[in-house]
Design brief:
Layout: H1 3-18, E1 26-29, E2 34-38, E3 42-43, H2 50-66, E4 73-78, E5 87-90, E6 93-97, E7 114-119, H3 122-137, E8 143-154, H4 160-170, E9 175-180, E10 193-199, E11 202-207, E12 210-214, E13 216-221, H5 226-238, H6 240-257, E14 261-265, E15 271-274, E16 278-282, E17 285-289, H7 296-303, E18 311-312, H8 314-324, E19 335-340, E20 345-349, E21 353-357, E22 360-369, H9 375-392
Antiparallel strand pairs: 1-2, 1-9, 2-6, 3-5, 4-5, 4-19, 7-8, 8-18, 8-22, 9-10, 10-21, 11-12, 11-20, 12-17, 13-16, 14-17, 15-16, 19-20, 21-22
EC number: 5.4.4.2
Protein name: isochorismate synthase
Pfam family, one: Chorismate_bind
């Protein structure tokens, strides 16, 4: 691909970003491509399990083709609890372009005046971590992920397209997204509910016979001081606690993909990946499928939820999460993305995000807890993860969260 053509694709990607409106079903930008899904063609019926949802998606795509849709693609989001209703639809059109340029201008975002309420309060969250550690030390669990939320109420309706542009500008290496959670209703709502964010974590991508996953686990906050920042990254790469947490996730993802794959490459050690606010331990897993008919959503469903957002063993971790967390995660730590009629597609883990409805926002952040976790350190990790959204809203000095 020559430089001129590559430049044209990036210009087209910027056009898609500037063309996003809240009635768009999905905006999705990765390091590979940019998608903008517009209009409503069909709704994927809800289902009470991921297996049933896969059947609904397959049927919806076949029906769309049979009724004349030239390029049906299912887009949307699936909640943390796979038994709860997903928000999936087939848009009238999906516009595609190359990746957004990494040199997007970064004007300073204007602060959004708002009130902030923690759910639960920080010390209550730390107490929950201590309770989880006691379970882990009793060998009931290898890992559990505990989340908390921030409820923000702004003085005026949030400018979602502007917030999306800011997220894209600040998170060029991740997955910037906006999902219209009202899109599957097939009726335009006066105030749509939007899931917006910049996730660093690829759950799975399927292209023909090739499959890729990029689990992340083990994190450290970035520092504005280059020397300290570098030291934090190196310390993370040597941390026995974080390496163990990461290995639990990688082993689970590999085990989930292996039955579908003829070959599977799993690196022995993780590498460092960074976002604007965090260092992460990262492992890039790749493989070749036995059956090309296996869809991206089938693969994503086999992995969801990974120990990176739930824990291990899965059932015990879920039970403890339901006991400790004082809110329903909804789509947070679920998955979002797209799957076309060939089964190709890309699904990311729904983190570093917020749900927005008019003047109200709910932000989410979580931390992986293992037996030697420190409650205050895990609390600090969630505070750092909130910064992806808070910084994009201009709330750099939001105080202790």
């Amino acid at each position: 691909m020559n430089d001129l053509f590559r430049g044209e694709l990036r210009t087209q990607a910027q056009y898609l970003l500037s063309g996003y409106q809240t009635d768009s079903a999905l905006f999705f930008a990765s390091s590979r491509q940019t998608l903008l899904a517009q209009g409503h063609y069909a709704t994927v019926p809800t289902a009470d399990s991921l297996e049933a949802l896969n059947e609904s998606v397959s049927l919806a795509l076949k029906q769309a083709k049979a009724t004349g849709h030239l390029d049906p693609v299912v887009v949307g989001a699936i909640p943390f609890d796979g038994q709860k209703p997903a928000c999936l639809s087939i848009p009238r059109s999906v516009l595609r372009a190359g990746p957004l340029p990494q040199s997007l201008a970064q004007p300073k975002p204007q602060a959004v005046p708002c009130t902030i309420q923690s759910l639960p309060e920080p010390q209550v969250y730390a107490d929950g971590v201590a309770l989880a550690v006691s379970h882990l030390q009793n060998k009931d669990l290898d890992k559990v992920v505990l989340a908390r939320a921030l409820d923000l109420t702004a003085e005026q309706a949030v400018d979602i397209p502007k917030l999306l542009v800011t997220l894209a500008q600040r998170n060029a290496h991740g997955y910037t997204f906006a999902v219209n959670l009202s899109a599957a209703a097939a009726e335009e709502e006066a105030t749509p509910r939007i899931l917006i964010g910049a996730s660093p974590e690829l759950l799975v991508r399927k292209q023909g016979k090739l499959v890729f996953s990029n689990p992340l686990a083990g994190s450290a906050a970035r520092s504005p001081d280059p020397k300290i920042d570098r030291e934090r990254g190196e310390a993370l790469l040597q941390s026995a606690k974080d390496l163990h947490e990461h290995a639990v996730v990688v082993d689970a993802v590999a085990a989930g993909l292996r039955p579908f794959c003829r070959t599977l490459n799993v690196p022995e050690r993780p590498v460092l990946l960074h976002t604007e606010t965090m260092w992460h331990l990262s492992t890039e897993i790749s493989g070749e499928l036995i059956d090309e008919a296996t869809t991206s959503l089938m693969l994503a469903s086999a992995l969801h939820p990974t120990p990176a957002v739930c824990g291990h063993p899965k059932r015990s971790a879920r039970d403890l999460i339901s006991q400790i967390e004082p809110f329903d995660r909804g789509f947070y730590t679920g998955m979002l993305g797209w799957c076309d009629a060939n089964g190709d597609g890309e699904w990311v883990v729904t983190i570093r995000c917020a749900e927005v409805l008019g003047k109200s926002l709910r932000l989410f952040a979580g931390a992986g807890i293992v037996a030697d976790s420190s409650p205050q350190s895990e609390l600090a990790e969630t505070s750092a993860k909130f910064r992806t959204m808070l910084n994009a809203m201009g709330l750099v000095h939001a105080g202790a969260v």
